[in-house]
Write a structure and sequence with these properties.
- With about 180 residues, the chain is of the alpha+beta class.
- Among the domains are: about 70 residues, Thrombin, subunit H, CATH 2.40.10.170; about 30 residues, no CATH class.
- Helix content is about 15%, strand content about 30%.
- The strands form 3 sheets. It has a 6-stranded antiparallel β-barrel. It has a two-stranded antiparallel ribbon with strand order 7-8.
- The chain is extended and about 65 Å long.
- The N and C termini lie far apart (about 55 Å).
Length: about 180
């Protein structure tokens, strides 16, 4: 059965209206079990690597990453401490994988593993976000290393572990001109 043109138009208008509203439906599940560092949630439809927020009774939110599944449950690991979380805590998927802000504002700054500045110079003003776990580069398509990397006094020890070298990458700005 082929849908009529009027039905297709009505569905498209409805889709556009939904896209324009900020009141998206938020689906949440609940924490059903916590064993060591792994938490189990039920009632959320998530993918591995996706970020979720878990809210405790006092309204404090904790960030967690989906690391697996067991039956109808999603397995989560908190990205920080999970103090105060108990069975029944609300679990809300964010809808995307773990991301980090990047940009020239990061140069010279000291950040922790989550990309939060710890150098006392305030927040980062980075607007671009990229997945924390990027796509690996094919080693056969990388540029060749053309010069050894001088690492200082203990270079003999480091050379015994593996060769180190300087990779010459063409400047993107000069290539675009």
């Amino acid at each position: 059965m082929v849908p009529s043109a009027r039905l297709v138009e009505a569905l498209e208008r409805h889709r556009v209206r939904l896209a324009d509203t900020d009141s998206a439906i938020k689906v949440s599940g609940s924490l059903v079990r916590n064993v060591g560092l792994v938490m189990e949630a039920r009632g959320v439809h998530v993918a591995i690597g996706e970020r979720c927020f878990i809210e405790n009774d006092s309204g404090q939110q904790f960030s967690a990453e989906v690391v697996g599944f067991d039956g109808g449950r999603s397995l989560l690991v908190a990205e920080g401490h999970g103090d105060g979380l108990a069975v029944g805590a609300r679990v809300t998927p964010v809808g995307r994988a773990v991301e980090i802000a990047v940009g020239p504002e990061m140069l010279g700054r000291v950040i922790d593993g989550a990309g939060v500045p710890i150098d006392g110079k305030g927040r980062l003003g980075c607007e671009e976000r990229v997945p924390l776990f990027g796509r690996p580069v094919d080693p056969m398509k990388r540029a060749l290393i053309d010069a050894p990397l001088d690492v200082g006094v203990r270079r003999r020890v480091l050379r015994g572990v593996g060769p180190l070298g300087v990779l010459r990458v063409p400047d993107r700005r000069s290539a675009a001109e």
